[in-house]
Amino acid sequence: MTTMEILQAAQAARPALLRAGTEKKNAALLAMADALWARRDRILAANASDMDAARGHISEVMLDRLALTEERVAAMAEGVRQVAALPDPVGRTLRTVERPNGITIEKRSVPMGVVAIIYESRPNVTSDAAALALKSGNVCVLRGGKEAFQSANAIVAALRAGLERAGLPREAVSLLQDVSRQSANDLMRAVGLVDLLIPRGGAGLIRSCVENALVPCIQTGTGICHVYVDRDADPEMALNIIDNAKTSRPSVCNAEEVCLVHRDIAESFLPMLQKRLVSDRAAAGLHPVELRLDRRAAAIISGTPAGEADFDTEFLDYILAVGVVDGAEAAAAHIAAHSTGHSDCIVTASRSTAESFIALVDSAAVYWNVSTRFTDGGEFGLGCEMGISTQKLHARGPMGLEELCSYQYVITGSGQIR
Question: How far is CA 129 from its chain centroid?
Fold first, then answer.
């Protein structure tokens, strides 16, 4: 089917989801989860083909984003089950007003309609997006990247089997078969067919959608995430947080890209940081982190001199930009100049310093003594996520069920006229 035919079929599936109650949607989600696990061999075989085609063309950390294992398929299925267990956001009364003339005005949550998602090489996004869309009463149209195309096809086939088993139209979840730039442009311009567009990917994709989309678009963010180590920080806690935020999975958007250190502790802390991320990792046979140092940091430890763009780059790799700042306010000012508004952290024992930093840092998630890796729908109790919004209108931070709903006013009376 062409992109336009898929979108038209998606629109035609909307009434069935609007009529489906919570019980039917949950039954469909559980059937989708079961189908994912039952078809794991097909999904893993498709993923192996994607991996073979991608080797030599993308980095090792990006291959990790693409790779599926039985454990990751099980986690995908469990994420769908967790969404089924969440409260249904559709039809909730958000506010009720009784007017003096007897009119009752209710503000109720309603689905967006057809939600389109453009994403790149993470196959789990396929099931996460489909589950959230279905539970919130939305039809889901997916446009994945070419690197994960066979994986996404196998996942969508499983999800559709679950939908049909539960008596819902398979068109409630669709995958575009065209992975060229044209299909992305088609989604951006599908006025009347797409009610909400969510891009998940690199800076180029996000910028293209924001600049060119004619349909409503939510800006999900690249993650230039910072950890600021204050002079009152516990050094061991700071090292643990930085190590986790940088190395646990460097290819994801909530990984740390910049470390800022207070000048009063820089001479003692930076050698510890270098030992933990570079020499200790190399000795353990792990990939060492390349430290890209500003002038003040380079005067204390060895590393790569930071280039002009290094504090404005989402590396998605074992690379960390490191700078020395004069205090929490200077750190907040640096973040304001370089952050993408995703996730930023302060490590300190001082509550007053932390509260000042939190007030100054205008990001979707601000952490105090916690790794930035927790910016995630599952970790926030949302089951899974549609993306991390770095804008401020409608949705901000991890997008779950509530962020996939709009609202309408329902006015009830007894013949009142104005």
Answer: 10
Find where tokens 């006025």 sit. Answer: 191
Which two three-digit tokens encode residue 272?
Answer: 């510890």
Cα-based angle 254, 255, 259 (whole degrees, multiple of 5)? 120
Q: Two tokens at 43? A: 């999904």
The model's pTM is: 0.83
The three-state DSSP-derived secondary structure of 30-58 is HHHHHHHHHCHHHHHHHHHHHHHHHECCE
Long-range Cβ contacts of 26-30 (<8 Å, 24+ apart) = 26/84, 26/135, 27/166, 28/134, 28/162, 28/163, 28/165, 28/166, 28/167, 28/168, 29/80, 29/81, 29/83, 29/84, 29/131, 29/134, 29/135, 29/162, 30/80, 30/81, 30/84, 30/162
Rg over CA atoms, the chain = 23
> What is the rounded distance in angstroms from the CA atom of residue 306 to the CA atom of residue 294?
5
Please report the pLDDT score of residue 393 as a whole number.
76
CA neighbours closer than 13 Å in the CB half-sphere of residue 99: 12
3-state SS class at 335: helix
DSSP letter assigned to residue 289: P
Q: Which residue has the tokens 């931070």?
A: 397
Residue 3 pLDDT? 94
* Alpha helix segments (H runs only) across 99-234: 124-135, 149-165, 181-188, 203-212
Q: Which two tokens stand for residue 28?
A: 């469909």
Are the beta carbons of 198 and 140 closer than 8 angstroms? no
In angstroms, the CA 354 to CA 98 distance is 43
Give the per-residue pLDDT at 20. 94
Nearest CA to 126 out of 95, 103, 93, 149 is that of: 149
In sequence order, which residues have a C-beta less than 8 Å from that of residue 31 and are 6 or more positions away?
Answer: 161, 162, 163, 165, 166
Residue 385's pLDDT is what? 78
Nearest alpha carbon to residue 332 among 350, 309, 353: 353
What residue ranges of the chain have pLDDT lower than 50? Answer: none
pLDDT at 50: 95
CA end-to-end span of the chain:
50
DSSP annotation of 374 reads G
